[in-house]
Amino acid sequence: MNRSALPKSAPTLGAMALAALLMAGCGQAVSQSPATQKAGTAPASASAGSIENCGRTLTFDAAPDRVVAMTPGQSELLVKLGLAHKVVAEAQTKGRKLQPELKARGDVKQLSDQMPPSREVLLGANPDFVYSPTAYEFTAEQGFASIEQLKQAGAEAYIATAGCQERRSKAEVTDILTDIDKIGAVFGAGAKTTAVRDEAATALSAVNKAVAGKQKPTVVELFVEGNSIAAIGAGLEYDMIKTAGGDNLFSPSDEAFATFFSALISPETLVQKNPEVIVFTTLDKAHEEATRTFLKEKFPQVAAVKSDRLVAVNSDDVMPGTWGNIRAVEQIAKGLHPEAF
User: Which one of 1, 197, 207, 278 has the fewest CB atoms closer than 10 angstroms to its CB?
Assistant: First the structure.
């Protein structure tokens, strides 16, 4: 790896701003359970009165009744687990409509659009369980309710395994299996937990089988905002590309990604890397089109742009702890190996 092609370690103001955007807007922020359950292990007990999450022990006298999902992706997983009747609110909706199962309830609130809800708004929903993709949603300095404040109000805060602080840069797609097991245990979802876990594991196994033995195209994953380009070189998104049968040209071993999974890169770096495929995350359809236009206008000489191998992935689907993680792997794999699907 040519480290001279990577951004310097000292963050610029632009890098810090983009990192904040990635954390709040794309759900790529950051806290870890000391152990991650791997595919193929037995699911957690449905009668669990306590679980470990991001180095904390969460305790429950009974299954929670008022759940706030901190993104629509968290809502989706809860609905798949048969818990739609427990969800009272979701946040960071980015204009998304409620899922039909939640809309049918008639009383599920949407607490915020682009950012996590304020302390007052979240506590006003009177939750007893909050499911979040990362620890960022509990940053008191940003005006959000902290984990301690939620605890004092009678609510436990569960952070997706792939979004745990110490886990964020080495997370794996299979971390979603841990979340399915643990959340299912908290709510006593029983057979539903097993069914959803099996569905996820089967989907990942199908991707592994489809791409096995195939030549791996070179890939970079980007998030573009204006003229700023951030590359992903570690964590959940890195493992998504690996699982989908791609060779990421950035790596956790690169100095730029030693402490954070994303880093700003220069246009020259992208040209030098010359990936065969570019995967990029999008906030909405307009952002997708803007990114495609930017790449085609600024980098016509890059192989991925020349061959129009640009794979757009919804930013909701790379949020830690969402069913979208499975969907994103399938989508990336089809972009990398269309002949296999």
Answer: 1
Specify whether 221 is located in the same domain as 291: yes
> Would 80 be classed as within a structural domain?
yes
Strand extents, DSSP E, the chain: 50-53, 56-59, 67-69, 87-90, 109-110, 129-132, 156-159, 218-225, 228-232, 247-248, 262-265, 277-282, 310-314
Containing domain of residue 230, as a range? 3-24+209-340
Instruction: Determine which helix (DSSP H) or strand (DSSP E) holds 245, and give its type and residue range.
Output: none
Note the pLDDT tens digit of each residue in 233-276. Answer: 999 999 999 999 999 999 998 988 988 899 999 999 999 999 99
Alpha-carbon separation of residue 328 from 36, 48, 204, 280, 334 (angstroms)? 21, 30, 11, 11, 10
What is the rounded CA–CA span in Å between residue 241 and residue 247? 7
Domain of 16: which CATH number? 3.40.50.1980
Burial 13-22 (b: 16+ CB within 10 A, else e): eebeebbebb
- Place 48 in a pLDDT band, splitting at 50, 70 and 90: low
Q: How confident is the model at residue 172 (pLDDT cuts 50, 70, 90)?
A: very high
Closest CA to 98 of 108, 88, 113: 108
Q: How high is the mean pLDDT of the chain?
A: 87
173-183, pLDDT tens digit by residue?
Answer: 999 999 999 99
Q: Are 224 and 252 in contact (CB under 8 A)?
A: no
> Rounded distance, CA 99 to CA 112, Å?
16
| Contacts (Cβ under 8 Å, ≥6 apart) of 102 | 75, 79, 84, 87, 90, 108
DSSP letters of 4-64? GGSPPSSPPHHHHHHHHHHHHHSS------S--PPTTSPPPPTT-SEEEETTEEEE-SS--
pLDDT score at 47: 45
54 has pLDDT over 80? yes
The answer on pLDDT for 288 being more than 70 is: yes
The whole-number pLDDT of residue 120 equals 97
Phi-psi region of 307 (alpha: psi -120 to 50; beta: other; left: phi over 0): alpha
